Amino acid sequence: MSRQRGPVRASRCKNDARRLVGYWVTEVAMCNASDIRDLFPEVKDNLTKVTWAHAVNSQKKLDDALQSDIMMLEADVIVGTLNTSGVNATDIPIMGHPPANESDLSLEDFLRQVLKNGKKGVKLDFKSYSAFSQSQPVIQDLFENATLPLWINADILAGPVNASKPDELFESFVKDTVQHFPTSTLSPGWTTRYGEAYNITDGQYTEEHVKEMLKSLSEANVTQSITYPVRAGLAANNVTAMESLLKGSPLESNATLTIWSSAGDHVDKQKLSSLIKTIGVDKVYLDVPKEVLDGLDVSNSTASAAGSLALGLTLVNLMAIRLL
């Protein structure tokens, strides 16, 4: 019996090593070349350093953004009319925000110019399922072999405060994104009813909002990176719900928050600072106005425990390879 323990133990060690390496390979595959930290290594483990351009929905705004040091370009996609010199096309994906229905920049031209520049990530915010559906072949054709960060965003659920329901067809948004854009970052959000337009300054994401979102992701068998767009003034009021959202995600290590805010929103900066510190700067993107950003205290924030654990597992996995 004693003579067999050595070989049996060695076999078990090798099996354990293979399982660890399998995990490591999966993690590496998920952290593909489209990860934002690959394009901007200076960010390291502090995602709050990522900078944003908003509503890049015209040729002028795109030109300005491409010539700047901005990292991520957020742009809205609708179906409408393209009006440029010598060109007039209707019912195609264009860059614009409702109620606009025409633009001098199509989705195709937008993506071609971004890819040619090669130095920016893209967040496409779809305002209707029709826009998303018609955009799919355009994105697939242009981004098939691209290595730039691509985020696919849409509000798919009703959120705070008694917000309106989004386009019902968006029920298939998550499944469609998983199927057609498996290397993109999925950005599923909630509609919100908050801010100056509604004269609402209080509210929060609830555990029920979180459960509904996680159910949608589970049903779609999501395996790619996820970032949840959450409104700053609402997210800061329920840190526990934000923690539950990340911890309950299909792959917690690949889940982040993108905290955003509209001009004029009431944001408790102390609470928001606390949220960021609790979650960790490696798990939070900040897409907020300068007056909000300047009022935050995240100077002593550190990476999350999950991020440190992921790094430790990677080192263990690298060591395990030597056992194969």
List keywords for this structure.
alpha/beta; 3-stranded parallel sheet; single chain; globular
What does this structure look like?
By secondary structure, this protein is an alpha/beta fold. It has twelve helices and ten strands. The protein has helices at 2-30, 36-39, 59-66, 107-117, 129-143, 173-180, 207-219, 232-235, 239-247, 269-279, 290-293, 305-321; strands at residues 52-53, 72-84, 87-95, 102-103, 121-126, 150-158, 185-191, 226-231, 255-260, 284-287. The strands form two sheets. Strands 1, 2, 3, 4, 5, 6 and 7 form a seven-stranded mixed sheet that branches. The chain has a three-stranded parallel sheet with strand order 8-9-10. Helix 6 links the parallel strand 6 (150-158) and strand 7. The protein is globular and about 55 Å long. The two termini are 25 Å apart. The relative contact order is 0.12.
Q: What is the gist of this entry?
A:
This protein is 41% helix and 20% strand. The chain contains 12 helices and 10 strands. The N terminus and C terminus are likely disordered.
Ends distance:
25 Å
Nearest-integer average pLDDT: 86
The secondary structure category is: alpha/beta
Strand content: 15-25%
Rg value? 21 Å
Number of strands: 10
The SSE string, one letter per element, is HHEHEEEHEHEHEHEHHEHEHH
Helix content: 40-55%
Our count of helices gives: 12
- Which runs of at least 5 residues are low in confidence (pLDDT < 50)? 1-33, 310-324
Which outline best applies? globular
Largest sheet descriptor: 7 strands, mixed
